[in-house]
Structure formats: C-alpha cells, structure tokens
C-alpha cells in the first residue's frame, strides 16, 4: 500500500518507538485529536509529549501497522492495528482508524483517531473484561 511520505513516517516511527521521528511527521502547528471528539493537542511539541506519555504506559510497544488506506485529495484514512504488552507483560492488541489531513508541505496538518481507547486502557491496566 502506498502512503504519503509523512503518513508512512508516522507508522514507521511508531514501529520503532522513535518519538522524535513520529512527532516530526506532523507540521509544527498540527492538530491531533486523540481520540475524535476530544479537544486537539496542538503543535509538534505537544504532540511529542502526548506520544511520549502514551508509550510510557506500555511494557513493550510494537507499534501501529497500517492495514488499509483510502485517499481523497489531501485526506487519507488509514485502518491500522496496534500491538505491544502491558507493564506486566500481557499482550495488548487494539485497532482503529486515523484520518490524516496533509498540509501544503505534505506534513500531517491534522490527525483524527477513531478507536476504542477505553479498551486499550483496560488492557494496559491488566483488566481481562
């Protein structure tokens, strides 16, 4: 699957837990809705902090793998799967869709995450149901 360069960098950086490269896929003034219907995190530095904080909740983070993508103009919707382990070592799996909007320079100007982050939180906490 061919992804725009910044979106490819987003996913590649996630799979090696490179927070600097992951945040660099975003424009300096980007907005990141994580998840949808929440106020966006704004700016590359704030996005870097969000990603760094999220990774700290894992015992092991294997990253996000794109499964399917659909593009219309500067927008691309990517279905993805995430894998890792919670701090106790139990496997954690989740999935979602992120809709990216590219800016004039081809960087991620906005990203909106759709997914069940409550379920992910329960898995990270070691809850079974």
Please identify, by name, the CATH architecture.
Roll
Morphology call: globular
Termini separation: 34 Å
Q: Count of helical segments?
A: 4
- The Cα radius of gyration reads 14 Å
Mean pLDDT: 97
Give the class from helix and strand content and strand pairing: alpha+beta
Task: Explain what you see.
One of its GO terms (molecular function) is isomerase activity. Keywords: Isomerase. Residues 7-108 form the SnoaL-like domain. Pfam families: SnoaL_2 (PF12680). This is Ketosteroid isomerase-related protein. By secondary structure, the protein is of the alpha+beta class. The chain has one domain (5-124): Nuclear Transport Factor 2, Chain: A (Roll). Helices cover 29% and strands 42% of the residues. The protein has 4 helices and 6 strands; from the N terminus they run ααββαββββα. It has helices spanning 5-15, 19-24, 44-55, 117-124, and strands at residues 26-33, 41-42, 60-72, 75-85, 91-102, 108-115. A 6-stranded mixed beta sheet has the order 2-1-6-5-4-3. Strand 1 (26-33) and strand 2 form a beta hairpin. The chain is globular, with a radius of gyration of 14 Å.
């Amino acid at each position: 699957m061919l992804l725009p360069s910044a979106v490819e960098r987003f996913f590649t950086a996630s799979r090696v837990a490179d927070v600097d490269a992951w945040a660099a896929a975003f424009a300096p003034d980007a907005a990141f809705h994580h998840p949808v219907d929440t106020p966006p995190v704004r700016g590359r530095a704030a996005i870097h902090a969000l990603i760094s904080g999220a990774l700290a909740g894992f015992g092991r983070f294997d990253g996000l793998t794109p499964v399917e993508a659909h593009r219309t103009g500067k927008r691309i919707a990517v279905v993805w799967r995430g894998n890792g382990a919670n701090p106790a070592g139990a496997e954690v799996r989740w999935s979602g869709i992120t809709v990216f909007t590219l800016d004039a320079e081809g960087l991620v100007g906005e990203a909106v995450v759709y997914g069940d982050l409550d379920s992910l939180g329960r898995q990270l906490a070691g809850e079974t149901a």
